[in-house]
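Section 5.1 Outputs to date
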Amino acid sequence: MKINVVTTIMRVVLGILFLAHGMSKVQMGFGNVAGFFESLGIPGFMAYVVGTIEVVGGIMLIIGLLTRYISIVFIIILLGAIFTAKLSAGLMGNGQMAGYELDIAYIVIALYLAVANTRSWSVDGLLFKKSSTNR
């Protein structure tokens, strides 16, 4: 029971954080974010893809819908951010740009959610009911 509470908190908090990141991209304007992506050598259209995934995926985590799959997608996005934008700044950043320490923490949380039983207090639990012997 206690692990279910902690897992739910982790899922909801990670969802809120990704939703906030996605909404930040929306508020900045995807065109501006696309320009930043292009300055890193990433195709500009990826700003729209990443921003949409962050908003929609954040909501999906908050309600607990397809948690495993969206967690894996978030891991891919985070690894992309580390290797394209943050690796050169170092783990803790360089005074001009944030490092990737927070991305690693998000990856660990998303990895846990990708492999853990996240069906308690979630839409997944309502839609995909299985007996505990099948888990």
